[in-house]
Amino acid sequence: MGFFDKIKRAFTGEEPKEQVQTQEEERYDKGLEKSREGFGAKLNALFANFRSVDEDFFEELEETLIEADVGFDVAMKISEALREEVKLQNAKKQDDVSKVIVQKLVEIYEAEGQDENNALNYAAEGPTVMLFVGVNGVGKTTTIGKLAHRYQTEGKKVLMVAADTFRAGAIQQLVEWGKRVDVPVVAKPEKSDPASVVFDAVQKAKQEDYDIVLVDTAGRLQNKVNLMKELEKISRVITREIPDGPHEVLLALDATTGQNALIQAKQFQEVTQVTGIVLTKLDGTARGGIVLAIRNDLHIPVKLVGLGEKMDDLRDFNPEEFVYGLFKGLVTGEASTDADSEEVEVSQEAPVETDTADEVPETETEEAEVTAENKTAE
Ligand SMILES: Nc1nc2c(ncn2[C@@H]2O[C@H](COP(=O)(O)OP(=O)(O)OP(=O)(O)O)[C@@H](O)[C@H]2O)c(=O)[nH]1
Ligand SMILES: [Mg+2]
């Protein structure tokens, strides 16, 4: 199913033709539940309560978008675009306005990411080396464990590398993951030179024909200069042994930290060549809008998303599933996934009064509300 078909479904509330949800849809559905209930429900409340599309409405919309972490720029872009669109299409009814908002969100998302490729890079031959960076606690080690499990299940030969020798307990944590997912871990004692651990691992990977090498790094060093030096040294060691490596430098960002994540990303961009983002803990935030802010502000592709703590909750980032997961049921009033959709729709708030009320016969407005579910988007 095409992207826009899916989005159409998102705001018509149409059920998919194929009734069986794919596993991918299901993960996104569950992982974005909080965002949908937070962000989606707030937008719904705004639509349900507005009386006219006036300055107050736009201000409230901007606030709601900023609260959802889409970022100031994106919030302003959407609100500007909406002003234009409302004028052009004379969209004043609740349905029309919310439709335009979703359309604009998708358009802005697509336009900002035209040259971005969110697929992971792999070596043409020999081992693929992926370096994981990010501040402490964002989910680097967990992501590596989940990814090791994924590649292992796919039949690849995987190696994990404990190059976070700085934090007490970090090596052990990766060793534990190694046992859990049955993947070998290259490790040295605490405080060893991380680059020497990486050197050993890369040698081993070449000699023993490993397919995937996942390198864990320290989230915290004494200062930025040290961090930069260390990451440079690690990269140099990799490139010396595998000229086109590292194939990915993935920055882990915790979605629950909101705008702070953007600041971290900018700092890491200064110290290393980040090739992609792993956005973790999306399941733990009601502000999934951060994905839009990342694209608009950073222009680094989000390649992987963490949608939960289970091993298979790490997914390749799929923008379609993401946007759909965020806005599904937005206009129909179905705020949560497991909702008995019909009941929720019928028990919607009182009919909306808009400043066009006198142009639209009341019966028509009511009818439009009740049949919203069967309506197809133009
Ligand atoms: N709910 C949820 N929790 C996650 C996700 N990813 C990681 N976590 C949790 O976040 C916590 C920190 O994860 P770690 O993998 O240890 O983070 P780290 O970046 O390696 O941290 P340092 O080693 O201290 O630099 C753990 O409790 C993980 O279970 C996710 O996608 N969803
Ligand atoms: Mg760690």
Structure description:
This protein has helices spanning 3-12, 23-31, 33-49, 55-67, 72-89, 94-112, 140-153, 170-181, 194-207, 224-241, 259-271, 290-297, 319-327, 341-346, 362-370, and strands at 128-133, 158-163, 185-186, 212-217, 248-254, 276-280, 302-306, 314-316. By secondary structure, it is an alpha/beta fold. The chain folds into two domains: 8-15 and 22-115 and 325-374, SRP54, nucleotide-binding domain (Four Helix Bundle (Hemerythrin (Met), subunit A)); 128-319, Rossmann fold, CATH 3.40.50.300. A hairpin with a 7-residue loop joins strand 7 (302-306) and strand 8. The structure holds guanosine-5'-triphosphate and magnesium ion. Magnesium ion is lined by residues 140-141, 164, 170, 173, 216.
Keywords:
378 residues; alpha/beta; Four Helix Bundle (Hemerythrin (Met), subunit A); Rossmann fold; eight-stranded mixed beta sheet; 11% strand; binds guanosine-5'-triphosphate; binds magnesium ion
